[in-house]
Design brief:
- This protein is of the alpha+beta class.
- It is built from eight helices and 13 strands.
- It has a nine-stranded mixed beta sheet, sandwiched between helices. Strands 1-2 form a two-stranded antiparallel ribbon.
- A hairpin with a 5-residue loop joins strand 10 and strand 11.
- The longest helix has 13 residues.
- The radius of gyration is 20 Å and the shape is globular.
- The chain starts with about 25 loop residues before the first helix and ends with a strand.
């Protein structure tokens, strides 16, 4: 995706033992979920399935992968390619055979006694900086002071790497008021490392980050260009990082939104078209950045750049400096 624009791996199965798929979802359903090796090539319920309840075992697995630096994207309790790719990345990190399958070796090394879901008390800070709504029209967005979160629920979901629907399932009837206790995922903290090289894999739609020894230290699901607006080819470099960047809409460069024909600047914020961070690349107008819609990562096209969830983009931004190599792999 340009800054001035917006817009087969092996399958695995996860089995929950003794867990009812009923709403509301209880925290212990996830914390006590048994993650077992797949007995076949049967696919898990795809992430886009809206007529099924989230699987507690999948939600727990997503938390464990997130903690290990192999991001599954948004933690939502559904499987799909993002989870499979995260398993494959974790296998590579652990020097295991890379096949994307959930086997005993993977499960053993992912083991973590910490709960996946914990209680959290909503603070006054969580209620600060919210906006009533985000209009779809860029001309209306350009009039705003900030493209912030529209609710405490949205703010908490992003902080804890969750889909808002999973947050709601864990907290039925919650008003998300200051002082109220809610249940949230407990993902990993930011990786403390220095990235020397990045690979953006167009076919698998995944971003891989390596240290100076060539060790894979982080992996993220990504939206990388589209057929109409392909990402760059070959090798680029990181020029710099901008946090909470404004977004320049220029219909003359790539696309036009609605009837908007004029160049305009949209304010920064998590619901800005490029999210909370922009990692600028040497190819003009291209970068690696966040998104206002984390659930769509690797499920919708971008306009040439590399789009990550806000939290993944922020983590990566903290590990790069100008001059880091970014290789686009077909």
């Amino acid at each position: 995706m340009r800054r001035n624009d917006i817009a087969p791996i092996a399958l695995v199965a996860f089995l929950s033992q003794g867990l009812a798929q009923a709403q509301p979802l209880q925290p212990d359903d996830i914390n006590n979920a048994a993650i077992v090796a797949a007995a076949s090539e049967q696919s898990i319920v795809p992430a886009e399935a809206s007529d099924r309840d989230p699987d507690p075992a999948v939600a727990r697995l997503q938390v464990l992968l997130d903690r290990a630096g192999a991001s599954p994207g948004v933690i939502d309790g559904y499987g799909g390619e993002n989870v499979t790719k995260a398993i494959a990345a974790f296998e590579a990190m652990q020097h295991l055979p890379v096949d994307g399958k959930l086997d005993p070796g993977v499960i053993d090394r992912l083991s973590d006694q910490r709960p996946a879901i914990e209680p959290y008390v909503i603070s006054q800070d969580d209620a600060e900086g919210l906006v009533s709504s985000i209009p779809k029209d860029y001309a209306e967005q350009a009039k705003m002071d900030r493209l912030g979160y529209t609710s405490i629920a949205e703010k908490l979901a992003e902080r804890f790497h969750m889909d808002v629907d999973l947050l709601a399932a864990l907290n039925p009837g919650t008003k998300y008021a200051v002082g109220e206790t809610v249940f949230v995922a407990l993902p990993g903290g930011s990786i403390d490392a220095t990235v020397k090289r990045i690979e953006a894999h167009k076919q698998t739609r995944q971003l891989l980050a390596f240290d100076d020894k060539g060790t894979l230290i982080a992996a993220y699901p990504a939206t990388i260009g589209s057929e109409d607006n392909p990402s760059p080819s070959g090798t680029q470099k990181v020029k710099g990082v901008a946090r909470m960047p404004p977004y320049t809409y220029n219909p003359k460069i790539n696309f036009r939104q609605g009837t908007n024909k004029k160049i305009m600047t949209l304010p920064g914020g998590p619901n800005n078209p490029v999210g909370t961070v922009w990692i600028d690349l040497t190819k003009p107008t291209y970068g690696i950045h966040g998104t206002p819609e984390p659930s769509l990562i690797d499920k919708s096209a971008s306009h040439g750049c590399v789009r990550l969830t806000n939290w993944d983009a922020e983590e990566l931004a903290g590990m790069v400096k100008p001059g880091v190599i970014v290789e686009f792999v077909d």
